[in-house]
Amino acid sequence: MSFNKTGSNLMTISDFNKKLQQLGSISVDLPFLEAEALLLKAQAVENNDEALAKQLWIAVQIIKTHRDFLEVFRLLRSKKYQDAWFLLERIDIEIIFLKRHFDLSSNAFKIKWISRTVTLLQALFPYRLFISTEMLTLQESCGICKQQVSIRKPCGHRIGEIYGGEMCTREITKMDFIGTVLVETPGNKYSVLFNESDDPKARDEQYATLVLLLSVIKNPYEHWGLRIEQRQIPHSHYPNLKADQLCPCGEGKSYKECCLMESGINYFHYEILLGDKQLKRYQKKSKRKK
Ligand SMILES: [Zn+2]
Ligand SMILES: [Zn+2]
Q1: How far apart are the C-alpha atoms of 61 and 171, rounded to whole Å?
Q2: What residues sit around ligand 2, an ion, with C-beta below 5 angstroms?
Q3: Contact, 87 vs 75, CB < 8 A?
Q4: Is 162 helix (H, G, I), strand (E, B) or coil?
Q5: Which candidate among 30, 41, 139, 168 keeps its CA 20 to 30 Å from the CA of 213?
Q6: If DSSP codes are grouped into helix, strand and coil, which group holds residue 106?
Q7: C-alpha span between 80 and 73 (Å, rounded)
Q8: Contact 119, 91 (CB under 8 A)
Q9: Which ligand is nearest to the CA of 238?
Q10: What are the strands of the beta sheet with 130-142, ordered from one edge?
Q11: CA 148 to centroid of ligand 1, rounded, Å
Q12: In the beta sheet, which residues pair with residue 226?
């Protein structure tokens, strides 16, 4: 991406571009950079420079992605796990919007790296079940021209395209609720089914793998990896477990309907990989069988 036109009294586009190259370091002043980008974009719109306005929309989107990514770590450190989860989902969506106009494969501005790290972070959450709501859209309007639109009556604006520095979306004004289903891999991850404990200690145990990650990485931009393996604990470790008791694997079924039929009790083993050869190991009994 290049910003080769000069602004006037604001930061020049080339200065702005240089600042943008520093993304990926915690020392970048993101709110300042975002404010500058929005001002430059407003100016481009005023000058009817659609191409520059679009480039600046991309820049704002990139800055937002970094801002939200750092915010996820602030939320995790203050033990607001569910808020962090929702923000991860928002980053996912922001990156999908961005992808349409920006090539992720080069890892420019570390966006590809953030995308991958978001997926790893999501895997560390103990959430497995979600409610998926099915809706039928009856009426929607265009976010750019505000007209009511339908397949037969399009307004000419395309969803996801940038017009005057804003992305075109559809606003649903009327819909029918069809029903809800329980799913394991949802289209959106907002309706998570999970009973978060009120007790801080028990909650840390629920999010033990995230707690571990936070204890080993110092800065959100640090590189890390994840290895998850399914392993088994021998049945002999639970000599007093009765067949009709809840299976310790956390699947939610009775022992006899669950791991008793297997060669051991299933759990997930998580390994957080740091640095080159350095390996941090952590073992966690999983909440889920496979
Ligand atoms: Zn429109
Ligand atoms: Zn089991």
Answers
A1: 20
A2: 247, 249, 251, 258-259
A3: yes
A4: strand
A5: 30
A6: helix
A7: 10
A8: no
A9: 2
A10: 148-149, 130-142, 170-183
A11: 8
A12: 272
Q: Would you say residue 48 has pLDDT above 70?
A: yes
Helix (H) or strand (E) holding 122: helix 111-123
Specify the pTM.
0.81
Strand, coil or helix: 255:
helix
176, amino acid identity: D
CA of residue 239 to ligand 2 center, whole Å: 15
Question: Distances in Å between the alpha carbon of 91 and those of 27, 40, 87, 188, 253?
Answer: 21, 23, 6, 12, 34
Rounded to 5°, angle at Cα 118 from 284 and 187: 95
Both tokens of 107, joined, read 């890892």
Give the CA angle between residues 213, 215, 221 to the nearest 5°: 60
User: In this structure, what token pair is assigned to residue 207?
Assistant: 């999010």
**pLDDT reported for residue 267:** 84
pLDDT attached to residue 278: 47
What CA–CA distance (Å, rounded) separates 186 from 97?
A: 19
Residue owning tokens 């930061």? 11
Cα 234 from chain centroid (whole Å):
36
Q: How far is the CA of 142 from the centre of ligand 1 (A)?
A: 5
